[in-house]
């Protein structure tokens, strides 16, 4: 019964925000912040506090929970692995210096100590998100397009944490999102810009859409980053030129056919 109660308390704690705690009889474990955010290459503080009914020499352990299992961070009064030279134990909390994106994940502070009922243990779970500024995105802009055709411009950035929002610019002027543009412009909206996926879609591109384009990625962690400027030229479909080209090609094919027929008549080719 007691074990079942401990499990229920731990589950409640894992779903609460800051100041959650886990209590097992004579020992209570809590944290001031169960969702920690820190910028890459800066410091992160993982809070863990405990109390017991009587003074005792508590054993403190820290573990990191990953998809592959659980690994020790602090064990037998020393840090393990990559944390040896950049982590410090402050009471039961740990301060990690120079955090990287690999440090993101779930951590568990486990406290065990002798109590009136014997050896008791408690734990609390903390998530760490290491935030990474956006890098310069990669943009795909067609050099040329014909009026009336479907054209899609793409923008992508894979370094930033959290994922950035995207904004497109034409001739140095930011393009409005489709919902904003729809409120201003009546009738057909000339394009659809998705700030999450980074796409800029023209369902029927026109000559007015010609210009110099670039995309900007921003996740509010560092400065916004942009890709190099690329020009897209939109031209009308020249029907007369297409007809003339088709006629010329047809005349060339006909001339070749007549030449072969004449040569065969003169006996330049064998019967085969």
From TrEMBL:
Q: Which UniProt keywords apply?
A: Cell junction, Cell membrane, Disulfide bond, Immunoglobulin domain, Membrane, Signal, Tight junction, Transmembrane, Transmembrane helix
Topology of the protein relative to the lipid bilayer: Single-pass type I membrane protein
Domain (Ig-like): residue spans on this chain: 46-127, 133-240
Signal sequence residues: 1-26
PANTHER family per UniProt: JUNCTIONAL ADHESION MOLECULE B (PTHR44663:SF2)
Q: Which family does it belong to?
A: Belongs to the immunoglobulin superfamily.
> What is the protein name given in its UniProt record?
Junctional adhesion molecule 2
Lineage of source species:
Eukaryota, Metazoa, Chordata, Craniata, Vertebrata
């Amino acid at each position: 019964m007691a074990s079942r109660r401990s499990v229920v308390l731990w589950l409640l704690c894992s779903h609460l925000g800051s100041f959650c705690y886990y209590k097992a009889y004579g020992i209570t474990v809590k944290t001031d912040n169960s969702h920690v955010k820190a910028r890459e290459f800066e410091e992160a503080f993982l809070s863990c506090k405990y109390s017991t009914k009587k003074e005792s020499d508590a054993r403190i352990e820290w573990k990191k929970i990953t998809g592959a299992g659980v690994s020790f961070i602090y064990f037998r009064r020393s840090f393990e692995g990559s944390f040896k030279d950049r982590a410090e134990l402050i009471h039961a909390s740990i301060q990690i210096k120079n955090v990287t994106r690999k440090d993101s994940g779930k951590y568990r502070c486990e406290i065990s100590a002798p109590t009136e009922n014997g050896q008791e243990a408690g734990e609390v779970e903390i998530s760490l998100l290491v935030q990474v500024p956006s890098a310069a995105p990669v943009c795909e802009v067609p050099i040329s397009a014909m009026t009336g055709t479907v054209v899609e411009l793409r923008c992508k950035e894979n370094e930033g944490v959290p994922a950035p929002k995207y904004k497109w610019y034409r001739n140095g002027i930011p393009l409005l999102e489709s919902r904003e543009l729809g409120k201003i412009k009546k009738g057909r909206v000339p394009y659809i810009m998705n700030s999450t996926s980074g796409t800029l879609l023209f369902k029927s591109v026109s000559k007015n859409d010609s210009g110099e384009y670039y995309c900007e990625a921003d996740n509010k962690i560092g400065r916004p980053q942009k890709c190099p400027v690329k020009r897209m030229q939109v031209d009308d479909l020249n029907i007369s030129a297409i007809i003339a080209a088709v006629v010329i090609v047809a005349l060339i094919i006909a001339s070749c056919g007549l030449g072969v027929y004449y040569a065969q008549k003169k006996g330049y080719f064998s019967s085969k």
